[in-house]
Design a protein that fits this description.
This protein has 461 residues and is α+β, with helices and mostly antiparallel strands. It folds into 4 domains: 2-169, no CATH class; 181-245, no CATH class; 256-350, no CATH class; 359-460, 2-Layer Sandwich (Zincin-like), CATH 3.30.2010. Helix content is 35%, strand content 22%. The protein has 15 helices and 17 strands. The protein has helices at residues 39-49, 114-131, 162-169, 171-174, 235-247, 251-262, 274-277, 285-303, 314-322, 332-340, 346-349, 352-355, 365-380, 424-439, 446-460, and strands at residues 2-8, 55-58, 61-72, 75-85, 97-103, 140-144, 153-159, 188-189, 198-203, 206-212, 218-221, 307-310, 326-329, 358-362, 391-397, 407-410, 413-417. The protein has a 7-stranded antiparallel β-sheet, with helices on one face. Strands 8-11-9-10 form a 4-stranded mixed β-sheet, with helices on one face. Strands 14-15-17-16 form a 4-stranded mixed β-sheet. A hairpin with a 2-residue loop joins strand 9 and strand 10. Helix 6 (251-262) crosses helix 8. The protein is elongated, with a radius of gyration of 36 Å. The chain starts with a strand and ends with a helix.
C-alpha cells in the first residue's frame, strides 16, 4: 500500500536528484512555497533512513530510490541512488541506475521526522499545481495498492506505514489548504486548538512551528518569516514576523489583543518587543496613518472615548481618573507602542508632579504663614539675594520607598505637603525650600552650605 500525492504538471526529474534545483524559487507565481532547492532530496534521504523507500513519477519516468554503503577514508556512509525507468520530458528513454551526490547522513541532525518529508512533498505538489495554472484544490491524495504513472502528472508514492498513515490524518492541521482554505489569505487565525497551550505558526498555509504558551491568535505569515533549511522557524524570527502582522492588523483584531493583554493574561502577544510593533522607520505616510487609525480605533473600542493607557501604578491611575479619564492598564511595551501610534497615555495627560505621584492643591493658611515667616526673617538680614518671595502650593503624594516627601521647590514655587500644619516641622520644611529658591542650588550642594553658614553669622553677630 502506498500514499499517493499527485499534481498536474510534470516536474523535471533533476528537481529530485540535483542539489539546489528549485523550479518554484523564481517562478513568480503567487502562493508557491518552495525556495531552497534541497527539500525533496532531504526528504528522500530522511525516508530512506527510516526504511521507507519512496517512488516518484515525473510523467512517465519512474524513479525508485535506495541507498548503498560506501567507504570514505575508512568510514561508512550510505549513498543515495536512483533507478530510472521510462521516458523523460523530451521523450528520451532513461533506464540507468545513478549514484546521487548525497548520502543518508545528510540532514541526519535536523531532518528527523517523517512528517517533514510529507510536508515537503505536499508543498511541492501544491507548487506544481499552481505553476500548471491550477490551485491546491487540484492536488490528489489517495491510498493505492501500487504506484502507477499518469501522463502529464507528477506523483510521489510513499509506502503506507502506520507512521505515514498517522501523518496523513493530520493533513488539515499541517496545511490550511486542506483544512479551511479561506484562512489562506489571513495572517491572524482563530485558535485552531485553544486547549493545546501553544501557538500554531504557518507560512503560506504550511505549519512550520509551534510556540509554547498561550496566545490570542495563531498566525499564517508570508515572506516576512524566515525559515531554516529544515523548513522550520525559530522563535526569534516568529515573534518578529508576528509583530509585523499585528502592526498591519485590523482594528477588530487589535482590539482582541489589547483586551487580553489588558487583562494581564500570559499570552505570547503580551511579550512582543515594542520596537518590532512600532513604525519608527516607516516613511510611507499613508501606511502610517492607516496604522495609527487602526490602533486608535482598537483602543477606543475597549477603553472608550476617555480611555488613557496607564502603567499599572494605582496612584497614577487614580490621578488619571481624577482628571475625568478612564484608566486602562497595559504592560510597558504595549503602552509605548500605543503612545507611538498617537493613543493617549498617562505620560501625556499627567503633569510632571503627578507622574511623580503628587497631586497639587491650594496652600493652607498655615503654609502661607510659614513661608511668610521665613521670608521676613531672610529680608531682615538681607539674605534674599534680590529674589522675590516664592509662591506657595500644597501637594499630597504616595509613600516612596517607606519615606514621605514633605516639600520640594519647582519653578519659583514652594510646595508643602498637606499633612503639615503649623509647627516647628512646617517652618523647617518651608525654610529648606525657600533657601532652594533663594540660592538656586540643589540638596547637598556647597552653595546651600555657604548660604546657611552666612545666615547663621548674620543672625548671631
Amino acid at each position: 500500500m502506498y500514499l499517493m500525492i499527485r499534481n498536474k504538471g510534470v516536474a523535471d526529474w533533476r528537481g529530485f536528484t540535483t542539489l539546489g534545483v528549485s523550479t518554484t524559487r523564481y517562478a513568480g507565481h503567487a502562493g508557491t512555497i518552495g525556495q531552497f532547492g534541497s527539500g525533496s532530496k532531504l526528504s528522500i534521504a530522511l525516508l530512506l533512513r527510516l526504511g521507507i523507500r519512496p517512488i516518484i513519477f515525473c510523467g512517465n519516468l519512474k524513479m525508485e530510490f535506495y541507498s548503498k554503503p560506501e567507504l570514505v577514508q575508512g568510514q561508512q556512509f550510505n549513498r543515495v541512488c536512483v533507478k530510472f525507468a521510462g521516458k523523460d520530458l523530451e521523450g528520451v528513454s532513461k533506464t540507468s541506475q545513478d549514484d546521487l551526490g548525497f548520502t543518508l547522513e545528510w540532514g541526519v541532525q535536523d531532518w528527523t521526522k517523517p512528517s517533514m518529508a510529507f510536508r515537503e512533498f505536499v508543498s511541492n505538489a501544491i507548487d506544481g499545481s499552481i505553476t500548471s495554472g491550477l490551485t491546491h484544490k487540484d492536488v490528489e491524495f489517495e491510498v493505492v495498492e501500487k504506484p502507477r504513472a499518469k501522463a502529464g502528472h507528477t506523483a510521489v508514492f510513499i509506502p503506507y506505514t502506520p507512521e505515514v498513515e498517522a501523518i496523513y490524518r493530520e493533513l488539515p492541521k499541517l496545511f490550511l489548504h486542506f483544512g479551511d482554505d479561506a484562512q489562506l489569505e489571513q495572517k491572524l487565525l482563530p485558535k485552531r486548538n485553544p486547549e493545546a497551550g501553544k501557538t500554531y505558526i504557518y507560512k503560506k498555509g504550511v505549519l512550520v512551528s509551534y510556540l509554547p504558551g498561550d496566545s490570542v491568535f495563531d498566525y499564517n505569515l508570508g515572506d516576512e518569516l524566515t525559515l531554516d533549511e529544515s523548513r522550520n522557524a525559530h522563535e526569534w524570527d516568529v515573534k518578529y514576523a508576528v509583530s509585523m502582522a499585528l502592526r498591519d492588523a485590523s482594528a477588530a483584531h487589535l482590539a482582541q489583543v489589547l483586551k487580553v493583554v489588558g487583562e494581564g493574561r500570559e499570552v505570547m502577544e503580551a511579550k512582543l518587543d515594542s520596537s518590532y510593533l512600532m513604525q519608527t522607520y516607516d516613511t510611507n505616510q499613508e501606511r502610517r496613518k492607516r496604522r495609527e487609525l487602526a490602533f486608535a480605533t482598537a483602543f477606543r473600542a475597549i477603553a472608550g472615548e476617555k480611555g488613557v493607557v496607564t502603567s499599572g501604578s494605582p496612584a497614577l491611575s487614580s490621578f488619571v481618573e481624577a482628571k475625568g479619564f478612564k484608566s486602562f492598564t497595559l504592560p510597558a511595551n504595549w503602552m509605548g507602542v500605543l503612545g507611538a501610534y498617537g493613543v493617549p497615555t498617562e505620560t501625556q495627560v499627567l503633569t510632571a508632579s503627578e507622574k511623580e505621584g503628587k497631586v497639587i492643591s491650594e496652600a493652607t493658611p498655615d503654609m502661607i504663614a510659614a513661608v511668610d515667616w521665613v521670608w521676613k526673617l531672610l529680608e531682615t538680614f538681607n539674605l534674599t539675594n534680590g529674589k522675590a518671595k516664592p509662591a506657595v502650593m500644597g501637594f499630597k503624594s504616595i509613600m516612596d520607598g517607606g519615606a514621605q516627601t514633605r516639600g520640594y521647590y519647582l519653578s519659583d514655587t514652594v510646595f508643602l505637603h498637606t499633612d503639615l500644619s503649623a509647627s516647628r516641622l512646617l517652618n523647617k520644611v518651608a525654610l529648606e525650600e525657600v533657601v532652594h529658591h533663594v540660592t538656586g542650588a540643589g540638596d547637598g550642594s556647597r552653595d546651600i552650605q555657604d548660604f546657611l553658614f552666612r545666615a547663621i553669622i548674620e543672625m548671631t553677630m
